[in-house]
């Protein structure tokens, strides 16, 4: 069970960080640790990453990897729930699998581009050039083929966040979105 407390601008979660670090170091896919238990300290205003992925083991892996690096993470296991998250939040970036159970990921990219400039990194087992080109032409900013190395994913995420200049899902800066949601500027 996760226990958390707020201390200044941080959310402190007591958990087993060492197990998560070992898990990531080994490059395993399923560490068996509950989804949110790998976070020890996350700034409340840290960049939010929405992960839309239907494979639970990969969701856990991404959540642990991103949380350890200081990102906040929200997850969705299908396109419908992912779209709802994107409408409710103002994420810094989206990690998206193309093979979702309820909808093609490329369709979600096209729809999202109709109202958002949020950076999208596609993570997919589809590695043919035409699939990559189609996703990028639909509006994805980056494409990583599975399996991928966490270091490369994190580097691409940092680069995409630098290029996006803090623009979230609604086209506003993260500071503007936070200000709008909390009414504290």
Q: Tell how many strands the DSSP assignment holds.
A: 8
**Largest beta-sheet characterization:** 5 strands, parallel
Output the radius of gyration. Answer: 16 Å
Widest β-sheet, arrangement of strands: 5-4-6-7-8
The arrangement of helices and strands along the chain is: EEHEEHEHEHEHEHH
CATH class of the domain at 45-165: Alpha Beta
3D shape: globular
Instruction: Give the number of helices.
Output: 7
| Corresponding CATH superfamily of the domain at 45-165 | Response regulator
State the CATH architecture of the domain at 45-165: 3-Layer(aba) Sandwich
Mean pLDDT: 78
Tell me the strand percentage band. 15-25%
CATH topology of the domain at 45-165: Rossmann fold
Distance between the termini: 34 Å
Structural class: alpha/beta
**What proportion of the residues is helical, as a percent range?**
40-55%
Low-confidence stretches: 1-30, 169-185
Which helices and strands, and how do they pair?
Blueprint: E1 3-7, E2 10-14, H1 17-26, E3 41-43, E4 48-52, H2 56-68, E5 72-76, H3 79-88, E6 93-96, H4 105-113, E7 120-124, H5 129-138, E8 142-145, H6 150-164, H7 174-182
Parallel strand pairs: 4-5, 4-6, 6-7, 7-8
Antiparallel strand pairs: 1-2, 2-3
Give short descriptive properties of this protein.
alpha/beta, Rossmann fold, three-stranded antiparallel sheet, 41% helix, 19% strand
Structure in words:
This protein is α/β, with parallel strands linked by helices and 185 residues long. It contains 7 helices and 8 strands; from the N terminus they run ββαββαβαβαβαβαα. The strands form 2 sheets. It has a 5-stranded parallel beta sheet with strand order 5-4-6-7-8, sandwiched between helices. Helix 2 (56-68) links the parallel strand 4 and strand 5. The protein is globular. The termini are far apart. The model is unreliable at 1-30 and 169-185 (pLDDT under 50).
